[in-house]
User: Fold this.
Amino acid sequence: MRRLAFAMLLVATAAYGQGTQGDFYVHNFRFESGQTLDTLRLHYTALGKPRRDAAGTVRNAVMVLHGTGGTGRGFLSRNFAGVLFGPGELLDTAKYYVILPDDIGHGGSSKPSNGMHAHFPEYTYDDMVRGEHLLLTEGLHVNHARLIMGTSMGCMHSWVWGYMYPDFMDGLVPLACAPTQIAGRNRMMRRMILDDIRMDPAWDGGDYKAQPKVGFSAALQILYVLVSAPLVQQREAPTRDMADSVIRAYVAHGLQTMDANDEWYAFNSSRFYDPSSHMSAITAPVLAINSMDDLINPPDLNDQLIYPFIRKAKDVKFVEIPEGPNTHGHGTHSLPAVWGHYLRDFLATLPYRGP
Assistant:
């Protein structure tokens, strides 16, 4: 694989909430399917600066991986960056080098809506993790990470990192997922999203000129349910009319700001995810955090989807946050005010590993 090993930088406002944006280009990237892209663009935001020890090993890099349909810059919110990245906070960017990538198929990285539409390679989580690794090592010249952490899809990527590159990081922090294949209701709802989009005649083989409104609307409705939590939705929409308004506004916004092909590819990328048979290869300490009001990862499935597999890894602490006034269902993964004290304890005892 021939790669262009440099990053083009676009400097934003000099503040921890903006960072530096850049693009790393990989030539002739070969996907797990055997398909290739002549040029794969990987967009990212970086905050802080790398610090190396006497041997040249970067000791302060933290990569934070976003969820399905998201972007790295989504972490620059007050609820996330304002709690973790500011002065004196746990991942203060005066001390840490924080990298927020846009994964393949997302944000400013190469994606179907850039022009290839449904002819874009059907990527997988393994492809995305390989891209993340190339961005760090060849694009940003980071040879070691203090933490690899991620939310939802990024949570699953964290588990994949654990066995694909077991010595690369000091620790892993997967937030809101399970370390086994996606099945049961989770897979059924994803299958509904995939089928709703492509069964709409307006999809036109992916070469639509306007969003396939009927199918994509149905997919967005399923997505809303997938990431919802009943108590949260009851607080946000305590009357019939408010409930109608909230879901209609959500779908209308999605039709205007999202692309059906991009969403189809993003959800399809999870089809082969299954770290369960690789858990013994994960040697880095892991702090895994789920919340009890998460519809995607409900606690009544932990005996099937969590405990049998984390026991096979070397060092995993699993935290399950009780439902409460500050939790937000699946979205609790992006509320470090809720789980940050667990991360603080994890970092306090996390040994330095690697070269």
Q: What stands out?
A: Residues 1-15 have pLDDT under 50 and may be disordered. The longest helix spans residues 240-257. The chain has eleven helices and nine strands. The radius of gyration is 20 Å.
